[in-house]
Predict the 3D structure of the following.
Amino acid sequence: MKKLLLILISIWAVSSLNAQEGEWYQGSVTFTSAANVYVRFESTRDIKEGDTLYVAIEGKRIAALQVKKKSSLSCVTVPLLTGRTWLTGETVSYFKKAEAKATAPVVPPPIVVTEDNVSTDTTSTKNKQDKIRKPLINGRFSASTNASLTDGEDYQRIRLGLTFNVNNIGGGYFSTQNYITYRHRYGVDQTTGFYDDFKIYALALGYDRNGHSVYFGRRISNRIANLGAIDGLQYEKKSGNWVAGAFAGSRPDHINYTFNPDLLQGGILLGYESQGEKSSTQTSVAWVEQRNSGKTDRRFAYMQHNSSLGKRINIFGSLEMDMYQNVRDTIQHKLQLTGAYFSIRFRPIRSVNITASYDNRRNVIFYESQRTYIDQLLNQETRQGYRLQAGWQVWKTININGSVFYRFQENQTKPTKNQVLSLSVSRFPTGNMSLNLNVNTLESYYFKGNIYGARLNQSLLKGRLGLEFNYRRVDYTFFGGEQKLKQDIPGFSANINMARLTTLIFSYEGTFEADRKYHRYFITAIQRFKNK
């Protein structure tokens, strides 16, 4: 009976989807946490909190995410499909309904129900879910070149990048992560080796099943991302709301990022996650030991917390505390705060969002790798920074955003101040154009000045061609010699969608000063890989 009900619902959903009037818009996954999936769109003006986002599975659009919060370009969503792994760059769709006619009301896009997202306790259904595990391929290859044309200082740079991730290889439980780049600069005298240009940021094979996760290779763990890449073995076990894990291996070489077995490291982590109807929380603690040629290089603890209180408040905080010091061969084991970061995002009303953050960081010291620079690093004081951002959706097509940033160090005579104010108008003057005006005021201990900017975007050929025209005016005054820098910087770019997964980008930017001119161009080709 349950199977018959699923078939009838699916038939009704597909027929309703074909009959409805409206248009699909695509976004992409930018970040995932234990509780939320973050999706970016060109604009979210037509998306409301509580709306449903869809993914394509076997040629069908399946209800997969529910919008929890949104900004002008991004959405924080809650997964509707349990047990699914979300990949960065994965395509997500939103259905914009056409305006309803008096005689024909619009039918909202249906939630397609499949056996993947229906919870059941029967053994037969579980076996079917195991059998229909489909490989998920998400990749991107980019080739780009850019050049700077200046009197006597011309150079050209190339960059190749490959990201290729596969989940459920062959319908099983293995996955792979890859991120590799190669970049080289021509026209400027430089002494570089192959591994100065060639970088492997991720190259790992993983196995996930029944709450166990094992990865081998080079990989960054989302739970301790501040640690950077880990070369070796990573293991996690999830049971209910608790997560425990450990890792062992080495750090990439701090000069050319190659494999270096002398830089051993290991650690353990413990996390707690919960997801409710109106709130969610994620907390993790890690203890890490890093060595160089067998000697302790650094020992520290890391704590991270992220929670959402209803739809209006989100809190994030992290602490990093060193537990080992070795200065002039005097070893101490005491806790010392190395870094602290806190932020709170508050939405008092639907059209207003406010974010405040505090950043306090000391120099991270590796007592073996940086032995000759320890005294210099210890003498540099802690830097602290405050940031306040606010956004106001004045009208459906008008947004105002402002931010204030303040950072200081005790050994500097003046703090660094930065204020930014921007006005964005979509559908200006027509529905496929948008305008952004901004002003940026900066002041530090050695200069002060302003940057004025404008950007005009236009979408043509049903989104296949995107054009952008931009202009910036730089006006700086440097203290001491009272020197001034004035620049006019116009720019242009064209984004051409050759096919659904193929994009070409052409850009130009010129900098004009009183006695000098700079010309820069950028050409990028992007090919994405994604299975249906």
Observations:
- Residues 128 and 474 are 62 Å apart (CA to CA).
